[in-house]
Amino acid sequence: MNPSDLKISQRVRIPLSEIDIKGMRARGPGGQHVDKTATAVQLRFDIANSSLPESYKNRLLARRDRRISHEGVVVIKAQSSRSRKKNRETALERLRVLVQAAGRARKKRIPTKPSRRAKGKRVDEKTRRGRIKALRRDIEP
Questions:
Q1: What are the residue ranges spanned by the domains of the chain?
Q2: Is residue 46 a contact partner of residue 18, using CB atoms and an 8 Å limit?
Q3: How far from chain centre, in Å, is Cα 44?
Q4: Nearest to 96 by CA among 41, 54, 52
Q5: What are the φ and ψ backbone dihedral angles of 136, each rounded to 5 degrees?
Q6: Is there a contact between 39 and 79 (Cβ–Cβ < 8 Å)?
Q7: If you write DSSP's letter for every residue of 53-91 in order, what string do you get?
Q8: Strongest mean pLDDT among 53-57, 66-70, 113-117, 133-137
Q9: Taking the CB of residue 94, how many other CB atoms lie within 10 A of it?
Q10: Among the listed residues 95, 83, 6, the one whose alpha carbon sits nearest the alpha carbon of residue 43
């Protein structure tokens, strides 16, 4: 594997050639520095046309994440630092975390039944509430 790849796991890497990184002007306060330098970074990564394993692609595309467009492109904007290099590293780290999360299969939930004691407690509580409500009724002559 190439050292210029983004390492996701022991076996999975994303070549940097598949990641499109563009510099842009940052928004917000910052004075003259913000107005004249393009330090913010926008990262774009096309999931479908990438070299990721199919399981990663499917999980990423199935995620409901606002950073993933309807076309299956991950768009990450980093502008917290005044340095383009740091913003680039931040954006790549966010992409790495997103893809790593998709790499982990979620555990299937095993539905459980309430215990005998829990069922008994529930019935006892219903009986108690019924008695309390019965005391609210009018007394018959």
A1: 5-103
A2: yes
A3: 17
A4: 52
A5: -80, -15
A6: yes
A7: -HHHHHHHHHS--TTB-TTSEEEEEE-SSS-HHHHHHHH
A8: 113-117
A9: 16
A10: 95
pTM of this structure: 0.68
Amino acid 45 reads: F
Helix axis angle, 54-62 to 84-103, nearest 10°: 100
Per-residue tokens: 53? 């394993």
- Write out the CATH class of domain 5-103: alpha beta
Q: Which structure tokens are listed for 93?
A: 């780290």
128/17 Cα distance (integer angstroms) = 69
CA angle 78, 83, 87 (to 5 degrees): 25
Residue position matching structure tokens 């108690």: 128
